[in-house]
TrEMBL record:
The chain crosses the membrane at residues 18-43, 55-76, 83-103, 109-131, 143-167, 173-193, 253-277, 289-307, 319-337, 343-366, 378-398, 410-429. PANTHER family: CARBOXYLIC ACID TRANSPORTER PROTEIN HOMOLOG. It comes from Prauserella flavalba. The keyword Repeat does not apply. Pfam families: Sugar_tr (PF00083). It is a multi-pass membrane protein. Keywords: Membrane, Transmembrane, Transmembrane helix. It is found in: Cell membrane. Residues 18-433 form the Major facilitator superfamily (MFS) profile domain. GO terms for cellular component: plasma membrane. This is Metabolite transporter.
Amino acid sequence: MQHSIIDAEPYGKFHRKLFFLSAGGPFLDGYILSIIGVAIGGASRDLGLTATQEGLVGASALVGVLLGGLVFGWVTDRIGRQLMYTIDLIALVLSSALCVFVDDAWWLIVLRVIAGIAVGADYPIATSLLAEWLPADRRGRTMGALVAAWFVGAATAYLVGYVVASVAGDEPWRWVLASGALPGIVILLARLGTPESPRWLLRHGRRDDAREAIKTAFGRYPTDAELDVLAAQEPPTKSRLSRVFTGGYLKRTLFAGGFWLCQVAPAFAIITFYPVVLGEYGFSDGNSALLWSAAVTLVTMAGCLPCIRLVESWGRRPVIIWTFVASAVPLAVLGFFPALPAVLAIIMFSVNALAQGGGNILQWIYPTELFPTDIRASAVGVASAISRIGAAGGTYLLPVSLEHLGLGPTMLIGAGIAVAGTVICVLWAPETRGRSLHDTASTGAATASAPSRV
């Protein structure tokens, strides 16, 4: 098949800018979901939170992410990527800023849900827009690199918490939560003027608008022949959410949501309550726990880096399978030996973090590659929503599990979830490296690609 103008265009200035703008969403997600672990101590004291309420506060943003992805993925497929690309950040900025006025637990929970909805909406919006502009030979590594931005955001949250706690203790926890509004405003303003996806425009019969979008991005108008090739790949189609759950796409939806759930259920729970979990190993000094939390989060980001390359050279399938295996083993060690010395516990958490970081890059590669343009954002939203069921459940149950079951059984539950993820990927993970977005999204095409080692 002849390459489209998008696949033929070399990766350049426009792609790099769009990547950084799209990475703003994962950065804010990591920041907002992790900053609650910094603020929970002060909030619990001032608002008199019970263990159950602490779990609800920690999980509330994840519930919002579930709702945001599920609803606004479909909306994005209907009204376009570019408009939603800015609207969702307005909601995020407002919900973060209003945390300054929180005076009871339910008010805090509601604002965290709204912030989560905005973050959840950004997942399908930003990933679909970026994937639809990327050439095939750079799509895997660029989409995978988005995940690294999440960990940068999480580490930044812990470092901000450390600085604030060192200067003022946990008294200004409301301002710590509200601090997410500042990077949100910067990213919102930078996103203004981003061109719409020409693939989406062609799916909606807007050929002239697609031509203008390509001119804005690449500095030249496409020829009629170039636009014809792209239009042939993106025929006008009405977006129907039901397609995500029918035919060959149902299995892909279950795969994408299933492996994502198994990755984030233990990861979000541990990351959200890193200071609490590390406290079980003797890091009773809150500031020390925050620094270790930032360090382990940066280790997770470091795990992304080699796998960003490996998904193109080794393949998507072996990377996701072996990173699940590598994340299960240290959690099992922590579960069977909960009395490990603090240094050894940190090593185990770091090994788990490296593996988690490597596997997590597939979260925004597979869902964008396995579905066509008319339902791509919907599918990413649904997969994200499925994953957040596990993430919200894990985050809500972790403090409860620590209180009632203890540290060892809690870590063994995390290891069991990682084993389940391994099984899902062995059975269902396709290999999509090296193929055009049109090919990987065609039912049945994604499994027949360059051979991999698994």
